[in-house]
TrEMBL record:
PANTHER family: SERINE/THREONINE-PROTEIN KINASE YRZF-RELATED (PTHR37171), SERINE_THREONINE-PROTEIN KINASE YRZF-RELATED (PTHR37171:SF1). SUPFAM superfamilies: Protein kinase-like (PK-like). It comes from Armillaria novae-zelandiae. It comes from the Eukaryota. InterPro entries: Kinase-like_dom_sf, Meiotic_Drive_Suppr_Kinase. This is Uncharacterized protein.
C-alpha cells in the first residue's frame, strides 16, 4: 500500500524528521494525514503540472481513454473519502487545509498549499440547480402564506443569540420537511421497489458563525461521506448519477444554500450568498419576502429533485455510468430546428473541463462535434475565419436554454465541427514552423481588417488537421472565447502567468491588435 501526505513535508526540517513528527502527532496513524494511492493513479494526477504546461484544449486520440481515467480517479476519491475523518473533524481549519491539499479535495473554491481545479457551474450537470437559480430571481413566483409566516418566525427565532446548536434544530426541520428529515438532518428520498434512498438536502447547523467550524464546509464533507458510504440502498443512485443534492447551512442569523454533485471528485458551489435572517429593520417586509422566495424556490426544487431520483433509470447490478461525467444538456435550438446530441467523452481529464466530444442525432448523420460551455464567445470572429477555411465550422452559438424555468446566467453553448489532428503544442517541441506562423499571422490579420481581435493565440489553440500537403494550408485556429471587437472585449479575470508575462497585461485589460501580433511572434 502506498500513501501520500496531504501536506508537503518540510525539507528545511528534513523530510524524514517531519514525517516522524506527524506520526507522533497522529497516534502513528498514516490515514490521519495521508491519502492512499493505488496503481490506478497517474503520476500527473499526484504531481499536477504547472500552469505553463497545461493545455486548455486537448484533442482526442484513439489511445487516450479519458473516461477510463475518470473512472479510476473516481474510485480513488471514494476510497479516500471513506477512510477520512468525520465531517466535524474535517471542517476544522487545519484539517480542512490538509485535506484540500490532497489528491481528492472537495472542489469548493478553497485550497491548501496549491490551487485545485476550478470546475464549471454545477447547473450544467443537473438542471435542478438552474431551476433553483431561476426561482430565486422570479419576482412573480407565488409564495404560499404558510412559507411567508414560517420565514417571519425563523427571522424572529434567529435574532436571539444562541448558546447551543439544539436551539436551531426545530426551525430547520420545518424549513426542509418535518416528515422526511431524519435525525442526522438529512432529507432523504425513498424509492420503495427495490428499497433505495438518496440525499435531497443535507443541513448543518451552528449556534453562531465560527462555532465549531464553518457549517457549509461541514455540510460539504457530510455530503461526500453520505454518498460514499457502503450502503446497498444508496449504491444504485450513486453509480447511476452525479448525485445532485442541496446543502443548507444555518449559523446564528445567517443561512446559505449550496448545491453539490459527485462526478469524479465532490463539487460544491454556493447558490446563494450568506443571507441575513436577523429581524433588524422595522418596516422591511420586502427583505422577509425575498427570503421567503428563496425558501419556496428551494422547496419546489426539492420536489423536482425527488421526482428525478424516483424516475432515474438504474442498471442491475449497479455499475458506474459515464453520464455522471457529462452535462445533462443534450440539445440546442437553431431557431429552425431542435438538434439533439449525445456526449462521447470529455476532451480533458481535468475536472475543470468544459469541452466535450459528441455526436449529433441520426437526422444529422451522427456527425461528430465539439460541444463547449463558455461565458462569452466571439462567434463573429469564429464564423469569419471558418468562412476562409481557417477555423472549424461553427454549428451553434447561443443560449443553453430558452426555457425561463432555467437560469444559466451569461453561460452559452458552442457547437462546432470536430477536427482530427494535433495542436501545434502537441506537434512541435520548440518554435513552430515558419510557414505555419505566416499563415497564423495572415489569419489574425483577417480578423484585424474587420476590427476583430482573437486574444488567445497560443500553441494549444492552433491546430494542424490530419492530411497531406502544406502544413500551413492545414492550419486551423480554435478557441474564440475572448474574441470580439477591439475596444470592447477585455481579458478575463485570473489570467495565466504566461499571458501576463508575454504581453505585460493585467486581468480585465482591453485586448488589442498589438497583443494578438505579440502572441503570434511568441509562438
Amino acid at each position: 500500500m502506498l500513501r501520500k501526505p496531504r501536506e508537503h513535508l518540510n525539507p528545511k526540517h528534513g523530510g524524514a524528521a517531519d514525517l516522524r513528527g506527524r506520526l507522533v502527532d497522529n497516534d502513528n496513524r498514516l490515514d490521519m494525514f495521508c491519502d492512499e494511492l493505488t496503481d490506478a493513479e497517474l503520476v500527473c494526477d499526484v504531481l499536477p503540472m504547472s500552469d505553463k504546461h497545461q493545455e486548455t484544449h486537448c484533442e482526442l486520440t484513439e489511445q487516450h481513454d479519458i473516461v477510463g481515467e475518470l473512472n479510476k480517479k473516481h474510485d480513488v476519491a471514494v476510497k479516500n473519502v471513506r477512510s477520512g475523518m468525520t465531517p466535524s473533524q474535517s471542517c476544522r481549519s487545519r484539517n480542512y487545509f490538509i485535506h484540500q491539499g490532497g489528491v481528492t479535495p472537495i472542489l469548493d473554491g478553497r485550497y491548501g498549499l496549491q490551487g485545485t481545479s476550478i470546475p464549471p457551474p454545477i447547473e450544467l450537470y443537473h438542471h435542478i440547480f438552474a431551476s433553483f437559480r431561476a426561482g430565486i430571481r422570479d419576482e412573480s413566483l407565488q409564495i404560499p402564506a404558510q412559507t411567508v409566516q414560517f420565514t417571519a418566525e425563523l427571522m424572529r427565532s434567529t435574532s436571539q443569540i444562541a448558546t447551543n446548536e439544539s436551539a436551531r434544530q426545530s426551525p430547520t426541520r420545518n424549513l426542509l420537511n418535518p416528515n422526511k428529515t431524519n435525525s442526522d438532518h438529512i432529507l432523504q428520498f425513498q424509492r420503495r421497489s427495490p428499497p433505495m434512498v438518496a440525499a435531497g438536502v443535507i443541513c448543518e447547523e451552528k449556534a453562531e458563525l465560527g462555532w465549531n467550524g464553518e457549517g457549509s464546509v461541514q455540510g460539504s464533507f457530510s455530503y461526500a461521506q453520505y454518498w460514499t458510504q457502503k450502503d446497498i440502498q444508496r449504491e444504485p443512485f450513486f453509480k447511476a448519477s452525479c448525485c445532485p443534492s442541496f446543502i443548507v447551512s444555518i449559523a446564528g442569523p445567517w443561512i446559505v444554500v449550496l448545491g453539490a454533485i459527485f462526478p469524479t471528485l465532490p463539487i460544491v458551489q454556493r447558490l446563494t450568498d450568506y443571507l441575513w435572517l436577523g429581524n433588524s429593520r422595522a418596516n422591511d417586509d420586502d427583505h422577509a419576502l425575498r427570503i421567503a422566495r428563496i425558501f419556496q424556490s428551494l422547496r419546489l426544487a426539492i420536489d423536482d429533485l425527488e421526482e428525478y431520483y424516483q424516475k432515474l433509470e438504474l442498471l442491475d447490478p449497479p455499475s458506474i455510468q459515464t453520464a455522471r461525467y457529462f452535462p445533462d444538456i443534450t440539445e440546442y435550438n437553431t431557431g429552425m430546428e431542435i438538434v439533439k446530441f449525445q456526449y462521447l467523452q470529455p476532451l480533458e481529464v481535468d475536472e475543470g473541463c468544459v469541452t466535450f466530444l459528441a455526436k449529433l442525432d441520426e437526422a444529422h448523420e451522427e456527425e461528430q462535434v465539439v460541444v463547449k460551455f463558455v461565458q462569452g464567445y466571439g462567434a463573429e470572429a469564429h464564423r469569419l475565419l471558418a468562412s476562409k477555411g481557417k477555423a472549424p465550422a461553427l454549428r451553434y452559438c447561443g443560449p443553453i436554454s430558452s426555457d425561463s424555468k432555467y437560469w444559466y446566467g451569461s453561460l452559452q453553448m458552442v457547437v462546432m465541427e470536430f477536427l482530427r489532428g494535433q495542436t501545434v503544442a502537441q506537434k512541435y517541441e520548440g518554435s513552430i514552423a515558419e510557414e505555419v506562423r505566416t499563415v497564423v499571422r495572415g489569419a489574425v490579420q483577417i480578423l484585424h481588417d474587420r476590427s476583430l481581435v482573437h486574444g488567445d493565440i497560443r500553441l494549444p489553440n492552433i491546430m494542424i488537421v490530419d492530411g497531406t500537403g502544406d502544413e500551413g494550408e492545414r492550419m486551423r485556429i480554435i478557441d474564440f472565447d475572448w474574441a470580439g471587437k477591439q475596444g470592447k472585449v477585455r481579458y478575463p479575470l485570473h489570467l495565466s502567468d504566461y499571458i501576463r508575462s508575454t504581453l505585460g497585461v493585467k486581468d480585465y485589460d482591453f485586448i488589442t491588435f498589438q497583443h494578438d501580433m505579440q502572441m503570434v511572434d511568441a509562438l
